[in-house]
Each structure stands twice: as structure tokens, then as C-alpha cells.
Amino acid sequence: MAVNARAAMRQADVVVIGGGIAGLSLAARLAGDSRVTVLEAESAVGYHASGRSVAFAHYGLGNDPVRRLTALSMAELAEHAVVHPALHIAREEELAALGALEEVHRAFGCDFSRVGPAEARALMPVLRPEACAAALVDHGSLKLDTNAMLQALAARLKAAGGRLVTGARVEAIARDGAGWRIAAGGETHAAAILVNAAGAWADVIARMAGVRPIGLEPRRRTVISFAAPEGEDVRGWPFTKTVGAGLYLLPEGRGQLLASSMDQTPSEPCDAAAEELDIAIAADRVEQATTLQLRRIAHSWAGLRSFAPDELPVIGPASEAPGFVWCAGQGGAGFQTAPALSAIAAAATLGLPFPEDAAAAGLDFAMFAPARLGA
Ligand SMILES: Cc1cc2nc3c(=O)[nH]c(=O)nc-3n(C[C@H](O)[C@H](O)[C@H](O)COP(=O)(O)OP(=O)(O)OC[C@H]3O[C@@H](n4cnc5c(N)ncnc54)[C@H](O)[C@@H]3O)c2cc1C
Questions:
Q1: pTM
Q2: Which of 308, 206, 218 is nearest to 269 (CA)?
Q3: pLDDT category, 37, cuts 50, 70, 90?
Q4: What is the best residue among 37, 305, 306, 342 to mutate for testing ligand 1's pocket, by most ligand atoms within 8 Å of CB?
Q5: How close is the Cα of 95 to the center of ligand 1, in Å?
Q6: How far from 27 is each of 11, 14, 116, CA to CA, in Å?
């Protein structure tokens, strides 16, 4: 499909493609100073990865820059979150990994304690003894209200005069002297700057715009939900996660639990769905690590976590197309890094200096720039 040059034109300064946490958090920052339009293919925001997260912020995942972004984001995240402890458990052969994670918590000044198996079981009474030789309790991790985050950002965008257009799948992108023309939802949008925050589809959007892709890999992750033991109020159980690959488990309300085997199967960008085998593996991991018996899976879902080859976010202008700004590759930490990452992305979009707090945390534009990936 080509962009219809004669269709009525909607003019903006910045068009953001993607109404997930990446696109909305950036657009909300830009609106007010710039005329911003967000184009979202689906009928509601957060339909894909952002609506399928387990909504937790902690230091047990990601690489060092991702953890620095998390640390910078915690204060803002707390606006739509409650403090909920995370219990990082290690079997005997994983004690070195637990020690490394303890160092991470110390380096970031977390409120944490190292505990033995009895204390771990006091917090998480269903743990099998062989699943936990020692554990780390992070007392400051956050259970996020991701829907409230998305809705607050959409409201902020609109209050500042920005536009959010849902049901607007971008189907063609053309470059002209003044910037970009984007065909979506029967309209043509024009803007000097085009931000690619299309999640798992970010490389699809790049190709559509004639921009070199970054080699993004969407990976499917599955979550199951099941009833807690009869009569048990599990709201106080910690978010429990193995230090290595294995399992995480967390309460969802009074009588429900969520679990994932932390699968990460490469996938094409798509409306991901949970597969039977992945559901069975997650259920088996729960029964291996705990005394819980899963008689029935109440619900299951899957979503795509999208990674650049070096597993760092990709933020900044494309080297050969300066008006095309990447905001992609948030992987498994798109919510817990959104406040800091959107500030960096806003500076990159507007050509402003790197945010001071992020610079003080040892981050810079170059580590996130698409140029590092040849894009
Ligand atoms: C099971 C699971 C658990 C997770 N748990 C956590 C967690 O505990 N903490 C955490 O921080 N992160 C977590 N994540 C990761 C987090 O959800 C992602 O990093 C984040 O949602 C990515 O946001 P995004 O906006 O880049 O992508 P998305 O939310 O996928 O948004 C991209 C949007 O672009 C739109 N789009 C694509 N193509 C077009 C087009 N052509 N035209 C218009 N729009 C288009 C899509 O419709 C989509 O809405 C988890 C992810 C999964 C799957």
C-alpha cells in the first residue's frame, strides 16, 4: 500500500507508532512542547506485550544498564504500585548466582536480607526444602498497576493536547522533504519526526519506512493462573523467583496465583497465545518447586518480549534517517524501566542533552543508540 498524497493530512510534530508502555510514556513526555500523535493499531492501548506483563519491578532480571534504568525509575513507578517483597530462591548449586544477585542488591542500595531455608519457608510456606538452600528477600520491590500506568499516561497525553488514535494500523510510510507521511486507519499523518515504538513489530515498521532493521527478536513468554489452596489467603506471599532459569510465582488477589517457567521461545511478531506444552511445563515447575497441586489451570496467556541482539533497549535516531527515532527492545523490563527510558527517548527525539540523573548513573546515548547495531 502507498501513502495517498491527496488524502486529508493530519499534521503533527511527532508521530509515535505504538500505544504500549514505550510509546505512551514517551508521547506523554513530549506532548505540551510538541504536537504529538500516537497511532495504535488495536482498538485499545496495551493490547500486546504491555497488557500481558506480570507487572513487577525488581532487580532479579536484565543486565547492568537495565538495572540502572530500573533504579532510576523506582520513585516514579511507586505512583502506581504497592511495595511487595520479592523472594529470590537458590538451590544448593545456585548459591554462587545468589551471591552475585546479593551484590547487585547491595550496589543499588536495596533494602534486602539474605535468609536461610527456614526463613524463606516462613514467607513462602509451600516451598519444597530442595528448592531453596538460601534466598534473598528484596523488601522494596514493587507490584505495579500497569493498567493504571497506561491510562494515566494516555490521560496526560490528551490533557497536554496530544492525540491518541486507536484502530489506526500503520500500513504505509513515505519520506518526503519535510519529514514523514504515514497512512493509518484511513488517514494520512505528516510529521517531521517518526518514533518507532511498535514493540515486536519495530523491525516491520523500520522496513516499511525504508530504514535498516535492528535484528529485533520477539520471544514468547507464557503465564498460567490457578487457584491457591482452599481457604488460603495468599496476598502476603512474596513474588518468588528462582535465581536461574526455572520459575516465578506470585499472588494475584486473595485466592489466585500466577506462574511462569520464564520461557522465551523466539517468535514472529504476532498476537501471541499460550501453547499447551508451555502451559504444562509451567505447571510442572510449580509442582517441582512447591507442594502446590495444580488440579486446574484457570487461565493462561502469552506475550512477546522483544530483544535487540545485545539485549539493551534501542533508543535514538536511525543513523541514516535522523527523523526516524527508535524506541524499542525493552525486553522483559519495559514497565520497570519506562520512567527513565522515556526521559532518555524524549531527549533523543528532541535533540536535547542526555538526562543528568541517567548520566550520573553511568548511562549515555551511545549504549542505547541504534548505530551500535549498524542501524
Ligand atoms: C508475560 C510477560 C511478563 C512480563 N513481565 C514484566 C514485568 O514484570 N515487569 C516489566 O517491567 N516488564 C514485563 N514484561 C515486559 C513488558 O511487558 C514489555 O517490555 C513492554 O510491554 C513492551 O512495551 P512496548 O510498548 O514496547 O510493546 P507493546 O506493548 O507490544 O506495544 C507496541 C504496540 O505497537 C502497536 N503496533 C505494532 N505495529 C503497529 C502498526 N503497524 N501500526 C500501529 N500500531 C502498531 C501494537 O499494536 C502494540 O500495541 C513482561 C512481558 C511479558 C510478555
A1: 0.97
A2: 218
A3: very high
A4: 305
A5: 33
A6: 16, 9, 45
Query: What distance in angstroms lies between residue 305's CA and the mean position of ligand 1's atoms?
Result: 7
Q: Point out the ligand 1 atom lying closest to the alpha carbon of residue 223.
A: 1
Interval 204-247: pLDDT, tens? 999 999 999 999 999 999 999 999 999 999 999 999 999 988 99
pLDDT per residue as tens digits for the range 154-169: 999 999 999 999 999 9
Residue 342, in any domain of the structure: yes
What CATH number does residue 38 fall under?
3.50.50.60
Domain co-membership, 129 together with 221: yes
Q: Are 287 and 249 contained in the same domain?
A: yes
Residue 243: which CATH number? 3.30.9.10
Question: Is residue 167 in a domain?
Answer: yes
Query: Do 234 and 351 reside in the same domain of the chain?
Result: no
Q: Where are the alpha helices (DSSP H) in the chain?
A: 21-30, 64-77, 95-107, 117-123, 146-159, 202-208, 276-289, 338-350, 356-360, 365-368
